[in-house]
Amino acid sequence: MTENYTALYEQHKIAGASFTDFGGWQMPLKYSSELAEHRAVRNAAGLFDLSHMGEIWVTGPDAAPFLDYALVGKLSAAAVGKAKYSLICQEDGGIIDDLITYRRGEEKYLVVPNAGNAAVVAAALAERAANFNVKVQDVSAETSLIAVQGPNAEAILLTLVPAEQHSLVTELKYYAAVEVEINGQDLLLARTGYTGEDGFEIYIPNEDAAGLWDALLEVGAGHGLIPAGLACRDSLRLEAGMPLYGNELSREGNPYAAGLGPVVSLAKESDFVGKAVLAELKALGAGSTSGRKLVGLKGLGRRAGRSHYPVLKDGTVVGEVTSGQPSPTLGYPIALAYVDVEHSEPGTALDVDLRGKPEPFEVVALPFYKRQK
């Protein structure tokens, strides 16, 4: 696989990052301590390089009906300035990717897929656009994405925004985006985090990314801002009960088994890719041909379950962990797992097979962690 490097790679090296491959990209795993970075995001702020994510513009007179057809959600219902979480599925209901789509105009949308799926999603959208008057433009290669996450994120960002535009930032709602002048440059600012905390994402041309990264670190120093890597991003999103493509979501799964049924708009008058099969799956009720659904597991002991570890009920395998680790915020092990529907109710006692030794867990409602407003 070809290794890709973001425009901020040198900044990460200077900061002492250790790197890992993620979706074909060399990304910072951590800079010093993933635990310190996790706690910084929960208590102050963390700075993330998300430039491995994709950016695909969909424009033209048919942009809204096209996205209604290409994705499972009703994107035409999103107001200009708002964002919508959705899925792009196969005809058989399998999930190609989960993504966020921003409506930037009546005929203009920005679709943001996950890192390893960006090219796949761009190709799928281009193929599905055949009978629509739209233009699908993949600008991932020239776009960087920087996120500031944590309770101090807003205060940090305001130091780089002109006073007359402060209200654009402070009044920006969750799952919305706006054009704002940041560090002297007009940029797209979104408020759609993946950490369970308040925060912002900034879309910026590659050539300007390093300057903004350095500026944010400088003004954020007094607010506790530190660079944060993928390791703490994973523990943060797990505490927030947010799925990760490749772990909880895949082409073999479907939205109902993953607990994402509300994302699917079967009420759309028009057809969309996967609609017939997804309607059948919803009617079945179980949400999965294997009879399993995604649940949260709280560890009752000290040892954590990890991806692919079997989940047991009275010694019999009834599921599999998709993500798991000790929760830095909560102080006990947590996991996401697919388990047989009959064992999925909160309060159900289960075990996770930790290399031959059963460890007690309990099914709990998601999310594990929810920030105080």
What does this structure look like?
By secondary structure, this protein is an alpha+beta fold. The chain has three domains: 147 residues, Gyrase A, domain 2; 104 residues, 2-Layer Sandwich (Alpha-Beta Plaits), CATH 3.30.70; 84 residues, Elongation Factor Tu (Ef-tu), domain 3 (Beta Barrel). It is built from nine helices and 20 strands. The strands form four sheets. It has a six-stranded mixed sheet, sandwiched between helices. Strand 7 and strand 8 form a beta hairpin. The longest helix has 15 residues. The radius of gyration is 21 Å and the shape is globular. The protein starts with a strand and ends in a 9-residue tail after the last strand. The model has no long low-confidence stretch (mean pLDDT 96).
What key phrases describe this protein's structure?
373 residues, alpha+beta, Gyrase A, domain 2, Alpha-Beta Plaits, Elongation Factor Tu (Ef-tu), domain 3, six-stranded mixed β-sheet, six-stranded antiparallel beta barrel, 9 helices, 20 strands
Short recap of the structure:
The protein is of the alpha+beta class and 373 residues long. It has 9 helices and 20 strands.
